Amino acid sequence: MTDLREPTLAEALLGWFDRTRRDLPWRRDRTPYRVWLAEIMLQQTQVQTAIPYFERFLARFPTLADLAAADEQAVLKLWEGLGYYSRARNLLHAAKQVVRDFGGQLPCEFKALRALPGIGEYTAGAILSLACGAKTAAVDGNVVRVISRWSGSAWSAKSAQDRRQAADYVLAQMPDSRPGDFNEALMDLGATVCLPQNPRCAACPLAWGCQALRTNLTGALPLRDKSPAVPTEHRLLLLVAAAGLWHVRQRPSDGLLAGLFTFDWLSPNRDPKPFRIYLQGRDDILVRTLPSLMHRFSHLAWHIDALRLELPRADLDELACWLDANGPQPEGRWVDRQDLDQLPFPAAVDRYRRQELDEPFNPSPVSL
Ligand code: ADE
């Protein structure tokens, strides 16, 4: 006899997933280590961007024990350009703990996972469901959107309480047999169909039961918090070279861009004009003004002006008083072009490394 009842959410979703699932590298062999790495990368990074990073990372560190034995600089280098570098440092610290406390195998246990650096509610839920087959929700912004629309609930992805409610909802609908597929189907639906703007409801396997669609509220759900305007810091970057060497400094081991390398900065709160006047009077320092750029972090933007300086000697003593105006700088070093390429640089500064260093050095007058 034909089954005339409506499908359940899980049946409709898993049927759709079986027809359309995206073939992504971390889905081919769902070990806890691979799932963990993928989920950490995907927290702030688009799928297409993450794929080559994921593959390079695993080629270099095929097992969690290989990662645990790495040094931080090598890990940051593989993360270069992905941003949110504390993810990479936490990954390394967590790997060391897992080798020490669990013999190198990520534990399939919620509390033990949550206690590892960088593993929050979402990541623990994803590892447990995708790699361990446990019935656990993994609710990120995409999933809040799907479930808030489907159930017609006025939830915000920013609210921990709303995410918990969404998790309870997901768990109540999750089939015993395929918790990982169910979670990934929700993620895929959020990423490809149930889009923030202009959701593709005509292609949605859940349109038949979607409360937001029925009540014409897809534009209003989930609730959106306006992203706050972020403060802008004006900074003057100094690409300093002498005798074929470049001067770099490693940032402190905590705070923004911790552990990464950059060129020199004029002290961020300092008026750059006196420094530029000083440079105008120094015939022995060749100067070129480079293009400015804006770089946005989540909580802050940098407006970067940049100068390339060629000094007569590999010696910063004469610039030190300008650079140290707000206290001593982290120790610097001179590196050749090849070594420079090996260091992990944040994206904002890396653009100068990639685009400016190999240009012929034509000095230009210093503008004020
Ligand atoms: N976004 C977060 N986790 C994901 C996954 N496992 N597959 C695809 N997109 C994701």
Summarize the structure.
This protein has about 375 residues and is an alpha+beta fold. It contains 17 helices and 7 strands. The protein binds adenine (ADE).
How would you describe what is shown here?
The chain has 368 residues and is of the alpha+beta class. Helices cover 44% and strands 12% of the residues. The chain contains 17 helices and 7 strands. It has helices at residues 9-20, 25-28, 32-42, 47-60, 64-68, 72-79, 86-102, 110-114, 121-132, 141-151, 160-173, 179-192, 211-214, 272-280, 317-323, 337-342, 347-355; strands spanning 232-242, 245-250, 261-262, 264-265, 286-296, 301-310, 332-335. Strands 1, 2, 3, 4, 5, 6 and 7 form a 7-stranded mixed β-sheet that branches. The chain is elongated and about 90 Å long. The mean pLDDT is 94. The structure holds adenine. Residues 24, 38-39, 42, 47, 184, 187, 191 line the site of adenine.
Radius of gyration: 25 Å
The count of β-strands is: 7
Number of helical stretches of at least 4 residues: 17
**How much is the average pLDDT?**
94
Shape: elongated
Order of helices and strands: HHHHHHHHHHHHHEEEEHEEHEHH
Please summarize the sheet with the most strands: 7 strands, mixed
Structural class, please?
alpha+beta
User: Regarding quaternary structure, how should these chains be classified?
Assistant: single chain
Kindly, what is the distance between the CA atoms of the first and last residues, rounded to a whole number of angstroms?
84 Å
**% residues in beta strands:** 5-15%
- Show unreliable segments: none
Percent of residues in helices comes to: 40-55%
Distinct ligands: adenine
